[in-house]
Amino acid sequence: MDAFYGYGLYVISLLTMGGLYALLTLGLNVQWGFAGLFNAGIAGFFGIGAYVSAFLTTAPSMRHIGGFEMPYVVGIVAAMAVAGIIAYLVGKVCLRLRSDYLAIATIGIAEIFRLIVNNEIDLTNGARGVSEIPKPFENLAEPWNQLAFLAMVLITMAVIYVLLEVARKSPWGRVMTAVRDNETAAKAAGKNIETFRMEGFVIGCMIMALSGAMMSQYLKFFNPAAIDPLTATFLVWVMLVVGGSANNRGAILGAFLMWTIWSATELLTTRLPAEIAFGSGEDRFVLLGDLAIRTSYVRIFLIGLLLQIFIQKYPQGILRERRPSFGRVDK
Questions:
Q1: Which residue, 214, 178, 114, is CA-closest to 106?
Q2: Which of 53, 118, 184, 226 has a C-alpha 20 to 30 A away from that of 309?
Q3: Mean pLDDT calculated for residue range 243-257
Q4: Nearest to residue 133, comparing CAs of 209, 214, 192?
Q5: Helix (H), strand (E) counts: the chain
Q6: Which domain holds residue 157?
Q7: How far is CA 36 from CA 134, 177, 181, 201, 228, in A?
Q8: Do the domain assignments include residue 331?
Q9: Is the pTM of this model over 0.85?
Q10: pLDDT per residue over 75-99, tens digit each?
Q11: Would 34 be classed as within a structural domain?
């Protein structure tokens, strides 16, 4: 019975993290899938949401700024608002760039933010991070507190999905697709492409901040390690590419699928032997050593291998883009 209870808690945790990553992927889908903006600084806006929410909702502390003990909702709304303002300011400078130049600029901004929170100890507590972050429903008994938080994450994800689907099928969504596919033609049709690109960038960053705020509440702790580009940028891109760019359902599917695989690879790599060797004595030959130390690299290799397999089989993602058209209902 205890084993089944433990498995149940693991599934709840898996679904919760999958839902939080689905929010991140939906935010990226607005930027890349809708507007064609290559944002490589996802971790930065994810971290902004987490830190702003943490500072506002935690109790007063000498270790970091904030400590206003505000309600969870206020922390989340403020996190999205601050991320939106910063995204607008960043967009004013970076959205004039294209393709790989935009990617370099956004990842540079994300790294600047990570270095700031890691080194400004008086403001953010540095690498030790912000702890004792209030979590919704934490006063409930186990496992009801975990289930309640999971329900909140899934409901939030569903609301964002519905809103983005409405936006995708609206005239705004069709213009965004036109801007993504051919900016020159969209501009010739009288559309202000700079405005639409800015809107896509800001909305995507706000959704990323929403995910960060809820992540900090779920973990009850947040430090610069949580905005590592590997897990907060690269993995999110893999989720969107595998699930299907420009398809909101594909973004959600890719998030849950790849997070499950990422978690499974962690379980597999922790069971690796210390080394792989043949023979004994003087004839003993070590083929691979220090496997326990190399587990993180093995995980990256496995994710990269799976990504290649998915791209070969589903070049446009598991769920391809489905454009709304006149005269039929896009299901």
A1: 114
A2: 226
A3: 96
A4: 214
A5: 13, 4
A6: 2-226
A7: 37, 8, 8, 10, 24
A8: no
A9: yes
A10: 999 999 999 999 999 999 888 776 6
A11: yes
Task: State the Cα–Cα distance between residues 144 and 142, nearest whole angstrom.
Answer: 5
Q: What span, in angstroms and rounded, lies between the C-alpha atoms of 79 and 259?
A: 24
Q: Is residue 8 part of a domain?
A: yes
**CA–CA distance, 323 with 28 (Å, rounded to integer):** 18
**How far is Cα 22 from Cα 17, in angstroms, rounded to an integer?**
8
Q: Is the peptide bond before 143 cis (omega within 30 degrees of 0)?
A: yes
- Helix 193-219 and helix 171-181: axis angle, to 10°? 100
Structural domains in the chain (count): 1
Residue 292 falls within a domain, yes or no? no
pLDDT digits (tens, 9 = 90+) for 128-146: 999 999 999 999 999 999 9
Encoding tokens for residue 120? 């400004």
Tell me the two tokens of residue 13: 């945790």
Question: What count of residues does the chain have?
Answer: 331
For residue 178, with 0-12 CB atoms within 10 Å meaning exposed, 13-18 middle and 19 or more buried, which class applies? middle
| Residue (of 331, 136, 184) closest to 247 by Cα position | 331
- Contacts with 244 (C-beta within 8 Å, 6 or more apart), sequence order: 250, 251, 253, 254, 314, 316, 317, 318, 319, 320, 321
Q: Say which residues have a Cβ less than 8 Å from residue 39's Cβ, sequence separation at least 6.
A: 28, 31, 32, 102, 103, 106, 201, 204, 205
